[in-house]
Amino acid sequence: MKNILLIATGGTIASKDNGNGLTPSIDVNILLDYIPVIRQKCHVTGISLMNIDSSNMDTSHISSISECIMNNYNDYDGFVITHGTDTCAYTAAALSYQLINLSKPVILTGSQLPIDVEKTDAVMNLTNAFIYSCEDISGVFLAFSEKLIKGTCAKKIKTKSFDAFESINFPCIATIRNNIVEYNINTFENIMTSGNGFHIKTDMCTDIAVITLFPGMNYNIFDYLNSSCRGVIIEGFGIGGMPDNITEHIHRLTTNGICVVITTQCLYEGVNWEIYEVGRNLTKENVINGKSMTIENLTMKLMWSLAHYKNITDIKNFMEKEL
Q1: Distance between CA 148 and CA 305 in Å, rounded?
Q2: Which stretches within the chain are classed as H helix?
Q3: Helix, strand, coil abundance in the chain, percent, nearest 5
Q4: Digit-coded pLDDT (tens) for 178-216
Q5: Which residues contact 279 (CB under 8 A, 6 or more apart)?
Q6: Which secondary structure element, helix H or strand E, spans residue 128, and what is its range?
Q7: pLDDT class for 273, splitting at 50, 70, 90?
């Protein structure tokens, strides 16, 4: 049987109501007590790395998760991470870049209800995460409501329902039916490979901003960003359209060496600047095409690339290359 490490970080799955609302307080070994059947499939060890609400998750916490995997990498065949659902997609995306040459499965999961309440989804999600972790796959994934989703494509789209996550602009990797894994795609590729074996790069640049455009917006905010940020993600309209009067502000940002990523407020089908004149005007600027990536993925990818590449050309090339 395979050796799997459970890394607990808190979240709803490990929460109890202590009189002031739900707060993470359940130990990792108690989590494992709720899924005794999984010990028939693999050898399990648990670590309580942190016990926080995922709203408090930041880049230092994410780096700690990567470091925990690095420190235990040679001793285990796969890793399961319990995590709060609200920022789980951000962590999944960040780990996809921080874990270099990953050749084992890293499966994040969580739940909409605590594991000790009636009719919780936590037992199913945690059990499925362990089943997926025993598969011969590699990479960072999110396991939720029977589905396995690539870490860079996961997005939480519902606040209460058990099917809270979807895979955006990429097929769901697999589903579990009657404890059997059924794959939807056949290949797994990782572009972040080299001859150095598994290692981590956890530096993240937090000097970025995410701006959502709206009609009548005051673009003077970009003057502030010009003096305070190294990167800006702009969520444009539809297929990536930008108002004519924002172009000069974007030009000032790029001229000042600030990386500007243009994406769309729509979930599906991504950006195409060639259709409308307002979009074609962007091609004259040195901006980055967010393509069909989620905002969670773009945010973590930009933070990681700004910390590891020195010039805009290298950052642009990395950002526009999809895993």
Answers
A1: 26
A2: 28-33, 59-72, 88-98, 122-133, 221-228, 247-255, 277-280, 295-308, 312-319
A3: 35, 25, 40
A4: 889 999 976 454 444 444 699 999 999 999 999 999 999
A5: 239, 240, 241, 242, 272, 273
A6: helix 122-133
A7: confident
How many whole angstroms from its chain centre is CA 76? Answer: 23
Q: Check pLDDT > 90 for residue 155.
A: yes
Residue with token string 């199913």: 124
What's the predicted TM-score (pTM) here?
0.94
Name the DSSP letter for residue 241. B
CATH pick for 2-200 out of 3.40.50.1170, 1.20.1250.20, 2.30.130.40, 3.30.70.920: 3.40.50.1170
Give the pLDDT confidence score for residue 186 in this predicted structure: 64
Sign for the pseudo-dihedral over CA of 221, 224, 228, 231: positive
Q: How far apart are CA 299 and CA 100, in angstroms?
A: 18
Q: pLDDT tens digit string along 116-150? A: 999 999 999 999 999 999 999 999 999 999 999 99
Instruction: Identify whether 12 is a catalytic site residue.
Output: yes
Please name the fold of domain 208-319.
Rossmann fold (3.40.50)
The whole-angstrom separation of Cα 199 and Cα 99 is 6
Tokens representing residue 71 in the block: 């420190």
| Ranges of CATH 3.40.50.40 domains, the chain | 208-319
How would residue 243 be classed by pLDDT, with cut points 50, 70 and 90?
confident
Identify the CA nearest to 78 among candidates 128, 148, 125, 139: 139
CATH 3.40.50.1170 residue ranges in the chain?
Answer: 2-200
Could you give the CA distance from residue 212 to residue 208 in angstroms, rounded to a whole number?
14
Query: What does the pLDDT read at residue 190?
Result: 42
